[in-house]
Design a protein that fits this description.
The protein is α/β, with parallel strands linked by helices and 306 residues long. Strand 3 and strand 4 form a beta hairpin. The longest helix has 18 residues. The strands form two sheets. A nine-stranded parallel beta sheet has the order 5-2-1-11-10-9-8-7-6. A two-stranded antiparallel ribbon has the order 3-4.
């Protein structure tokens, strides 16, 4: 596959530990993104910056979640001071708690505020920005009101999740609306949404050969070898996953206090991993209340999948 492959940020999942271990054991991603870095109570969340400081991946792009131009400038200054030259602006997050704070995809309901963020980005010439969007918040045609502003903003590329925000992840991606956007957008476009298998990626690349690449998140967690398959690399074995999972678990044990906190971090991965495994085995993982019970349940599921 000659298209670029971007590792999507998944809040709470693709943290610095996951990114480091994933790229070590699986690789294949041309670019990785941090979960969004944001401002709370007037200041940047310090744990976001600590994670950014701890990451040493050469292909890492920090992603920010500004509500307005002032927040974009504050976030940009903090990230640029750490030596980063690229930033991704998130205008695509669909989750209600984020929308309630006027951030993410809901900005399409406030086009003047959206334009002010793009204008601020255009004036920060020392940073190369990219943009992550959906096609709207309440419908898939809201992008039309701001496409000229998007086109007039210097951007490396735009990643488009082909749904509107209110859908979250329900229903099908709107390929027709995406085609309209692609026809009017003057920037390189990365496709995102429901890319779970190599067949899904091939289908999108055949339908839209002009796209620059794809961004994949949930599909990668369902099959960590997906990027290797797409790149034509040697596909890691199940034993690779055992080592990957073991190191991920050990890393969280070393940084967290108690079984409950560690399992609260690890169990959400299993909402995606090995989706075709028997439900009873997934349930055993979710029911485990001790790390030793959890590891036994994981081992049983992996053995079933061999």
């Amino acid at each position: 596959m000659t298209k670029e492959i971007h590792l999507a940020p998944l809040q709470g999942l693709t943290d610095v530990v996951f990114r480091r271990l994933f790229m070590h054991y699986y690789g294949g991603a041309d670019y990785c993104y941090t979960p969004f870095i944001r401002i709370e109570r007037g200041d940047i969340r310090q744990r976001d910056l600590r994670e950014l400081d701890a990451d040493e991946l050469p292909n890492l792009v920090p992603q920010i979640l500004p509500a307005n131009a002032d927040e974009l400038n504050l976030l940009t200054e903090a990230i640029a001071s750490r030596g980063y030259k690229r930033i991704d602006i998130n205008m695509g997050c669909p989750f209600p708690p984020i929308a309630a704070h006027g951030k993410g995809c809901v900005l399409f309901n406030y086009p003047d505020r959206l334009r002010s963020i793009l204008s601020a980005a255009a004036h920060n010439s020392n940073i190369e920005y990219s943009l992550k969007i959906r096609l709207g918040f309440t419908s898939c045609d809201q992008w039309q009101e701001v496409i000229s502003d998007i086109n007039n903003t210097p951007l490396r590329h735009i990643t488009v999740h082909a749904r509107y925000g209110k859908q979250q992840y329900k229903g099908e991606c709107d390929k027709n609306a995406f085609r309209e956007f692609l026809n009017q957008c003057k920037h390189p476009v990365i496709y995102n949404g429901d890319l779970l298998t190599t067949a899904d990626v091939d289908d999108i690349c055949n339908q839209f050969p002009e796209i620059k690449g794809v961004m994949i998140g949930r599909g990668l967690l369902a099959d960590p070898t997906l990027f290797c398959q797409l790149k034509g690399l040697e596909v890691p074995t199940t034993d690779t996953f055992r080592r990957f999972h073991s190191e991920l678990l050990d890393a969280h044990i070393s940084h967290m206090s108690g079984d409950k906190q560690v399992l609260g971090k690890m169990k959400p991965y299993w909402e995606y991993l090995f989706p075709n495994a028997p439900k009873r085995l997934h349930k055993n993982i979710q029911k485990a209340n001790k790390i030793d019970l959890y590891t036994a349940a994981v081992a049983a599921l992996i053995q079933e999948e061999i």
